[in-house]
C-alpha cells in the first residue's frame, strides 16, 4: 500500500459520461482525490496535477474490478467512498427479452455494483466511509416495458438496505440515490428489444416509447444528481434514500404509497399511454 495521504479518496464507476462524469469532475473540483472508472476511461488522459485520475474498469469482470481497487490502494493507501454508478437501461416486454439480455443488465447494474462493494469493503471498513449506490425512481416504482432494468434497481435497493445494517458498525454509510429522468448517455446507450417492437406488444410498446421520448426530450442535464452526491459525501449521517427528480416525477413514489393501488395504476396507465 502507498503512503496514506490526508486527501479523501473516492472511486466513481461509470465515470466516462453522464452522471458519473459530472460526479467525478465535481468531487475533484471540491478537493477529493477522484478515480473515475469505466470501460472506456482507460483512454481518457488525466490532466497533470489534477485530482482526477482515470482507470479502466469493467464492472462485470472480477479481475478488472479487483485490479482497479488494488491500483487505487497502491497509489493512495485509502478509499473513503465509492459511487456505484455504472449502468445501462433496457426496454422490452418481460415476455420477449431473451434470458441472455436479462442476465446482461443484471450483470452490470446489480452484480457490477455488488462486485465493487465487495472489493472495496475491506478498505472502507478500515477507516469508515460511504457507499453511494445509483438506483433510480425505477428502483421504487415499476414501469411497464422496463421490467428488467427496474428489477436490477429494485435488487440494488434491497441489497443496499441490508448492507447499510452490516457496515454501519464500521462507520460505513450506505446510501441510495434515486434519480428521475436526466439527459445523459443513457438514452443513446439503451438497449431496446426488437422482439417487443415486432411482437404482440408492438402497438402498446410504441405508444409507451413515444410518451417516454417526450419525457426524455424535456429532461434536464444531471448536475443536480452530482450536487446531491457531493452533499451526501459531506454528511456525517446521511439517510438511506434520496430522490432527485423534477417536481412531477418526485411525487411518484409518494403517490404510489398514498393512493389506492387501482387508482394509482389507472393514472399511471393513462400517463404512459397504455
Ligand atoms: N440518466 C437518467 O435519467 C438516470 C435516471 C435514473 C438512474 N440513472 C442511473 O445513473 C447511472 C449512470 O447513468 P447515466 O444516465 O449517466 O448513463 P450514461 O451516460 O450512459 O453512463 C453510463 C456509464 O456507465 C459505464 N458503464 C456501462 N457499462 C459498464 C461496465 N460493464 N463496466 C463499467 N462501466 C460501465 C459507461 O461507460 P463505458 O461504456 O465506457 O463503460 C458510462 O460511463 C446508471 O446506473 C443509471 O441506471 C440514470
Topology diagram in text:
Blueprint: E1 9-13, H1 18-29, E2 33-38, E3 52-56, H2 62-76, E4 81-84, E5 90-91, H3 99-109, H4 111-127, E6 129-134, H5 147-167, E7 172-179, H6 186-189, E8 191-192, H7 194-198, H8 202-218, H9 223-233, E9 241-244, H10 247-250, H11 252-258, H12 261-271
Parallel strand pairs: 1-2, 1-4, 2-3, 4-6, 5-8, 6-7, 7-9
Helix pairs in contact: 1-9, 2-4, 3-5
The chain binds NADP nicotinamide-adenine-dinucleotide phosphate.
NADP nicotinamide-adenine-dinucleotide phosphate (NAP) binds near residues 13, 60 and 184.
How many strands, what sense, and barrel or not for the largest sheet?
Answer: 7 strands, parallel
Here the CATH topology equals Rossmann fold
Structural domain count: 1
Strand content: 15-25%
Kindly report the average pLDDT value.
95
**So what's the CATH class?**
Alpha Beta
Radius of gyration using CA atoms only? 19 Å
Helices and strands, in order, run as EHEEHEEHHEHEHEHHHEHHH
Give the cofactors and ligands: NADP nicotinamide-adenine-dinucleotide phosphate
The CATH architecture would be: 3-Layer(aba) Sandwich
Distance between the termini: 56 Å
The strand line-up of the biggest sheet is 3-2-1-4-6-7-9
What's the tally of helices? 12
Please give a structural write-up:
It is a single chain. With 274 residues, this protein is an alpha/beta fold. It has a single domain (9-271), classed as NAD(P)-binding Rossmann-like Domain (Rossmann fold, 3-Layer(aba) Sandwich). Helix content is 49%, strand content 15%. It is built from twelve helices and nine strands. The protein has helices at residues 18-29, 62-76, 99-109, 111-127, 147-167, 186-189, 194-198, 202-218, 223-233, 247-250, 252-258, 261-271, and strands at residues 9-13, 33-38, 52-56, 81-84, 90-91, 129-134, 172-179, 191-192, 241-244. A seven-stranded parallel β-sheet has the order 3-2-1-4-6-7-9, with helices on both faces. Strands 5-8 form a two-stranded parallel sheet. Strand 6, helix 5 and strand 7 form a beta-alpha-beta unit. The protein is globular, with a radius of gyration of 19 Å. The chain starts with 8 loop residues before the first strand and ends with a helix. The mean pLDDT is 95.
Amino acid at each position: 500500500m502507498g503512503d496514506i495521504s490526508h486527501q479523501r479518496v473516492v472511486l466513481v464507476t461509470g465515470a466516462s459520461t453522464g452522471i458519473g462524469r459530472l460526479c467525478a469532475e465535481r468531487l475533484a473540483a471540491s478537493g477529493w482525490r477522484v478515480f473515475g472508472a469505466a470501460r472506456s476511461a482507460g483512454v481518457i488522459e488525466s490532466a497533470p496535477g489534477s485530482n482526477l485520475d482515470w482507470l479502466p474498469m469493467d464492472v462485470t469482470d472480477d479481475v478488472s474490478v479487483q485490479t482497479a481497487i488494488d491500483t487505487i490502494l497502491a497509489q493512495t493507501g485509502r478509499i473513503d467512498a465509492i459511487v456505484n454508478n455504472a449502468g445501462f437501461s433496457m426496454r422490452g416486454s418481460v415476455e420477449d427479452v431473451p434470458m441472455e439480455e436479462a442476465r446482461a443488465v443484471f450483470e452490470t447494474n446489480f452484480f457490477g455494483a455488488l462486485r465493487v462493494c465487495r472489493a472495496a469493503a475491506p478498505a472502507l471498513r478500515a477507516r469508515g466511509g460511504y457507499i453511494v449506490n445509483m438506483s433510480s425512481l425505477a428502483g421504487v416504482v415499476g414501469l411497464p416495458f422496463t421490467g428488467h432494468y427496474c428489477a436490477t434497481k429494485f435488487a440494488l435497493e434491497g441489497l443496499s438496505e441490508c448492507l447499510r445494517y452490516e457496515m454501519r458498525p464500521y462507520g460505513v454509510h450506505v446510501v441510495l440515490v434515486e434519480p428521475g429522468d436526466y439527459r445523459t448517455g443513457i438514452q443513446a446507450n439503451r438497449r431496446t428489444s426488437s422482439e417487443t417492437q415486432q411482437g404482440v406488444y408492438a402497438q402498446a410498446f410504441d405508444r409507451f416509447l413515444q410518451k417516454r421520448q417526450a419525457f426524455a426530450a424535456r429532461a434536464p442535464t444531471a448536475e443536480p444528481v452530482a450536487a446531491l452526491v457531493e452533499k451526501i459525501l459531506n454528511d456525517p449521517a446521511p439517510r438511506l434514500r434520496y430522490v432527485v427528480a423534477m417536481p412531477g416525477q418526485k411525487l411518484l413514489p409518494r403517490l404510489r404509497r398514498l393512493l389506492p393501488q387501482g387508482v394509482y395504476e389507472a393514472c399511471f396507465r393513462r400517463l404512459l399511454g397504455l
